[in-house]
Amino acid sequence: MVNAPVLVLNQGYEPHDVCRTRRAIILVLGGKAELVEDSRGEIHTVSASYAIPSVIRLTLGVRRPCHERRLTRLEVFARDGFTCQYCGRHTKDLTLDHVVPRSQGGGHHWLNVVSACKNCNRKKGGRTPEEAGMKLLSAIRTPRGYGYHVPDHYFYAHEEWQKYLPQQLRIIPGFQIAGLVPEESL
Ligand SMILES: [Zn+2]
After folding, report:
1. Is there a single domain that holds both residue 60 and residue 113?
2. pLDDT digits (tens, 9 = 90+) for 103-145
3. How far is the CA of 68 from the centre of ligand 1 (A)?
4. The pTM is what?
């Protein structure tokens, strides 16, 4: 339990980092952070007991380094508004499509990946849009960076953390995590 991950928010209640429970408790006891969510019960030592934090907030200002956004399925779907970039359908059955297929030398980077519904992905197969007679609905762009870097999988695993995500990245109702395609099928 002392190793469980804890979400660290900055003063503005934005995700800043992830730390382990032991460190979070030290920060809180030292007055450097305050408890925001403590749904995990209590930890007992010989002399005292402490609420186990799930989310803490730093009481001092922190600089916001600008990280480049990680290329993950969720980030790509969010960039594309959870919409298939070929047919415009808004669906939870999205897949990641490499515009120029990897088999044809297409890279795994922001400007070569788009959200595609399963139908369009199947139809396109291992071809470029030109070869498949399909057209992208909008220009592909690299999303602006956020000021933090907390890997997606933490937000999958900790539902109570999601309200601290920027609006466009929240797992919106209807977009179940289970509906996302497994990593190996990309
Ligand atoms: Zn489609």
Report:
1. no
2. 999 888 888 999 999 999 999 999 999 999 999 998 887 776 6
3. 28
4. 0.52
- Boundaries of domain holding 85: 73-132
Q: For residues 117 and 78, state if they share a domain.
A: yes
Looking at the domain assignment, is residue 185 inside a domain?
no
Ligand 1 centroid – CA 91 distance (Å): 9
Residues 84 and 45 in one domain: no
| Ligand 1 centroid to residue 124 C-alpha, Å | 10
Q: Which of 51, 40, 3, 9 is nearest to 150 (CA)?
A: 9
Distance 184 CA to ligand 1 centre (A): 21
For ligand 1, the distance from its centroid to the CA atom of residue 118, given in whole angstroms, is 7
In angstroms, what is the span from residue 67 Cα to ligand 1's centroid? Answer: 31
Hey, which bits of the chain come out as E strands? 5-9, 15-20, 33-37, 42-44, 49-51, 55-58, 94-98, 113-117
